Each structure stands twice: as structure tokens, then as C-alpha cells.
Amino acid sequence: MKRGVIETLRRGVDNTIANWxxxxxxxxxxxxxxxxxxxxxxxxxxxxxxxxxxHLADIKGPEDIESAVTSLLSKWVLxxxxxxxxxxxxxxxxxxxxxxxxxxxxxLVDGDRNAGPAVAGPRQRYRMFSGxxxxxxxxxxxxxxxxxxxxxxxxxGLILLIPLIPVxxxxxxxxxxxxxxxxxxxxxxxxxxxFAIIVAVVMGMWTNxxxxxxxxDQTGARATLRVAWRAVKxxxxxxxxxxxxxxVVAMAGSSFFASFSMFAAFGESLGRNASFNMITLPLRLVxxxxxxxxxxxxASWYLASYSALAVEDVSxxx
Length: 318
Fold this sequence. Notes:
10 helices
């Protein structure tokens, strides 16, 4: 018997809180990726900028940015190295995230199974986290999760070309008429952005369900994606409503934490008052950390809710 959206979301909340260590691991992942990004910029971009005579301290306006970009474009070999470095960095990010997601999915699916189908019951029945369980899931599933991301979002990128190619073609056709070309480009950009949002939502639901499905079925990436796609199509209402509900909560939380940045904006209105900015710096740092922790909690809730759907599906097929 299918559960309602509210009940599924509630199971996701209970599972997330009972296995709160997963949210802490996600938060640690965010910190790690931030540190890697900073180190990558220092190690890769800054030396290249210096080698072509660009100093970050000298970039103070649009003219300086334009001059820096022109200098970089003239050194296309260095630019290729930067693009290669960014590509490698993104692959490293996906590998790390896949490792974390695989471990989290394993624990959340086991937690939902351990809780049983009963609606009421103590939250502790979801508690299944252990270091050994998480590491075991991460080791056994990261490669499948890695390919789930690449296959699904690779297809999403190809789908995004559907509105983009006609728009570019029309801009080229009307290039002799700048006004018409600009109008076509603006309208095409709006259409593309709306289409991109829809594609991102669908791909997000598909990949999240596929990750939960892998933990429930322990199958390969392609088989898991096929099963997950059928599940999303056949039960689109629940998948979409769960995603929208979590999105609304995520936006509300992000707005709440972003409100603390108003103090910094107030400092700017005082004429870049250095003393005021120093006073509000701890508050801004704390709000940034709390926002990241909240994002980690939301990500766990999203996966836990879809894990409940995956376990329910497997039980109905048994």
C-alpha cells in the first residue's frame, strides 16, 4: 500500500534525525570541497595570472577585468591548462560526493527497512548508523553512484541543447539585423532558463531516486537508472510533491540564514565602516556555517524520503 506524501516526508525526517551523523558527514564534505577549491585556485590560477603579468590586487574595475581576460585569451595554451585543471577538479568533486552519497544511501535505506511499515513508532527504530556500515556502503557503491551522476546529467546536458541550438541558429540568421538578433537572443535566453529549471528538477528527482534505488537493489548504474526512471514516471505525483515540499523548506531556511547578511549590507551603507564589519564578521561566519549545516540536513532529508519510496517499491515487488 502506497503511503501519502506527508507520511513519506515524516519517515524521511525521522530517518534523518535518527541518523544525524550522516548530515554531519555531508557538512564535512562541504567544508572539504571548499578547502580543495581554495587550494586549487591558489595552486593553479594565481601562478598563471602572475606569469602573464596579472596581479589580483590590480583588478579594481571592469576595465581591469577586460584587460585580464584579453591577456589570458592571448595565452591560449595556459587557458587550456586552466580548463583541464577545472575538469579534473570537477571529477574529483563528483568522486568525493559519490563516495559520501553511497554511504549515506546505504544507512538511510537500512534505517527505513529496520523501521518497518508501521506509521507510528519510536524514532530510534530508524537508527542504523555506524562507521563500518557507512564505509561499507561508500566503498561498494561509489562507482555506481559516480556513473549514475554522469549518465543522468550527461543526458540532461544533451537535452538542454534542444532549445539552445535553434536559438543560436536564429541569432546567426538575423545577424545582419542587430535589433532582431538581440530580441531573439533575449527571448531564447528566457525560454532556455525555464527549460533548464525543468530539466534540473527532473534530473534531480531521477538521480536521487536512483541513488536510493541502488542502495535498495544493489544493481549496476544503468539498471538502477532504468528502474528509477520507471518509478518516477509511474508515481510522478509523490516524487514531485516531495521534491517541491523539501525545496520550499530549503528556500525558507536559506532566506532565514541569508537575513543575517543584512548586517553586512548595513555596514556597506555606512560607508564601508571597517569597525562595524569586524564586529559583524563572527555573525556572518556563524550564519554561513549554519546555512551549510542546514543544507546538509535538507540533502539527507531528500535522500531519506526517496529511500522510503525505494524500500516501499522493493517490498511491493517481493
